[in-house]
Amino acid sequence: MNNLKPEKLINAEFHCHTVYSGDSSNCVGALIRAARKRGIDRLAITDHNTIEGALKAKALAPELVLVGEEVLTKRGELLAYYVKEEVPKGLAVEEALRRLKAQGAFISIPHPFDLRRHGWRLEELIELLPEVDALEVFNARCLRKVHNEKALAFAREWSKPMLAGSDAHSLVELGLAVVRLPAFNSAEELRAAVRKAEISGQLLSVADHFKASTLIGLSKFIPGKKSARIINL
Known about the structure:
Structural class: alpha/beta
CATH architecture: Alpha-Beta Barrel
CATH topology: TIM Barrel
Strand order of the largest sheet: 7-6-5-4-3-2-1-8-9
Order of helices and strands: EHEHEEHEHEHEEHEH
CATH superfamily: Metal-dependent hydrolases
Helix content: 25-40%
Number of domains: 1
CATH class: Alpha Beta
Number of strands: 9
Strand content: 15-25%
C-alpha cells in the first residue's frame, strides 16, 4: 500500500508590482486582498529596484507574500525571489548576480526577448543561462505574443526551468498568468518545485492595457498617495 501523501500544489503569481515601483497603481493592502480573492496562494512582489513594498506586504501577510525584486542592470533586467538585501539598479550584470547569489536568492530573467522592456540579446541570454535558476516564458504584459513564444522555445531548447507572471502594474492584471507547482518555503525548495510547474496565462488585452494605463495615470494625482500606500486589510 502506498502511504505517501499527495504533493500539495499551489497557485503562484511570480511577477507583480506595487506603488513602490513608481509606475504601478497597486497599493499594498489592495493587492493582498485581490490576490486572496483570486485564489493566489503565493504572491511574489517584484518592484523595480526596491524591496520596500514587498517587505511591508510580507509583514501584513507573511503566509502569502514572497519578497522579490526586478533589478535593472546595465545590460537588462533580472527577476529575483527570496531577496533579503535590496540590489540597486545600474550595476554591471555580474555584480548584480554576485549580490543576489550571496543572499541565496532564486534568480530568473523576465520577458527575456522583449527588447523594448529591458530584454536581452540572444548571445547574452546564452551567456546568462548557467547563472540563473529559471526563465520567465510567459509575461502577460508582452504586447507581441512572439516574445513569449521565443522565450518558451528557448527554455525548452536549453532545458531551463520555466516561470510565468502577469507583471501586474494594476489590479486589472493580477493573476493573468499563474504557475501551479508544489508548495515551497525557501529558494532551494523553489528550485525543486519549479521543475514540476504548470503554467497558464493570457495576454493583457488592448482594452485592459488602456484601463491599466488609465488607473496608473490617475493614481499619480491622488493626494497623499505616498503616505497612504498601505490600505488596512
